[in-house]
Design brief:
The chain is of the alpha/beta class. The chain is built from nine helices and 15 strands. The strands form four sheets. The chain has a six-stranded mixed β-sheet, with helices on both faces. Strand 7, helix 4 and strand 8 form a beta-alpha-beta unit. The protein is globular and about 55 Å long. The two termini are 19 Å apart. About 4% of the residues have low confidence.
């Protein structure tokens, strides 16, 4: 997070806005960013595991949780093996995998979780987990996603968070549903929300928010579904969009272009 983005989001909170970090990552992987933004002082929230958990920064209270049970995990691990995909299962601060691989290293670096190799993974699965992650090279993962979606028959919600990450959660879990649930908890109308995202797991949130802003580096399919498109992540797009919206160049709760730049 750049100094520009950090300062912009801090100022937004000081003006009365509430910041929510929504990610496919676990809570502990977002806590450093939340601390940098001083979100506990402003009663911010974390939406983790694509919406499977919602936690308050000021109290640490978990206000929502929706987990996969062991039979769900076993089924996904079996399908991952059949489809020749790597698999990760989350167990508190640990990342369980049958065999460490190049994607394990990426996920461990992103989340800070301890990697535990479990050759007999089915025998050590936790009673519940918020998410199972399947991984493979991007071109192969597209086909794995297609086949797995057909096999699940609605048993899970499946989406890509990165070209090589396929997220598997309970069918009612997504960032959009989590945003709606949090708004109900806070008694804030969805119309008064701004959501910013750059990947497929952000789409439900962009569609439900009062204003959905796609990053400039988002896939074309995501940009087409957003209300506005901002600069890429590397150019502080999220912060720049928020600054422009707050300055009145675009009215988040009034009239704004169906598509445009922010």
């Amino acid at each position: 997070m750049s100094a520009f983005t950090r300062d912009c989001l801090r100022q937004a909170q000081a003006q009365g806005l509430r910041i929510v970090l929504a990610s496919g990552r676990p809570v502990q992987a977002m806590e450093k960013l939340a601390d940098e933004l001083e979100m506990a002082a402003y009663d911010g929230f974390l939406i983790a595991f694509n919406g499977a958990q919602i936690v308050g920064c000021s109290t640490g209270e978990q206000i929502y949780s929706c987990m996969l049970d062991r039979p769900d995990q076993l089924w996904l691990c079996q399908k991952a093996r059949e489809l020749e995909a790597f698999v990760h299962v989350y167990d508190g601060p640990r990342l369980l995998t049958p065999q460490a691989n190049e994607y394990t290293e990426i996920e461990s670096r992103l989340t800070g979780l301890e990697v535990v190799e479990c050759p007999d993974l089915p025998s050590v699965l936790p009673p519940y987990t918020p998410k199972v992650l399947l991984m493979q090279a991007p071109d192969r993962l597209v086909e794995i996603e297609r086949r797995l979606t057909g096999l699940t028959r609605g048993r899970f919600a499946i989406c890509r968070s990165k070209p090589f990450f396929l997220e598997c959660v309970r069918p009612q879990v997504c960032k959009g549903t989590a945003l709606k649930r949090l708004c109900t908890h806070l008694q804030v109308p969805l119309l008064q929300t701004i959501a910013v995202g750059d990947s497929y797991n952000d789409l439900s949130m962009l569609q439900l928010a009062g204003v959905g802003v796609a990053m400039g580096n988002a896939p074309a399919a995501i940009q087409e579904q957003a209300d506005l498109v901002t600069d890429p992540c590397a150019c502080d797009g999220a912060a720049r969009a928020l600054c422009r919206l707050l300055q009145g160049k675009v009215q988040p709760c009034g009239t704004f272009p169906a598509k445009g730049t922010a």
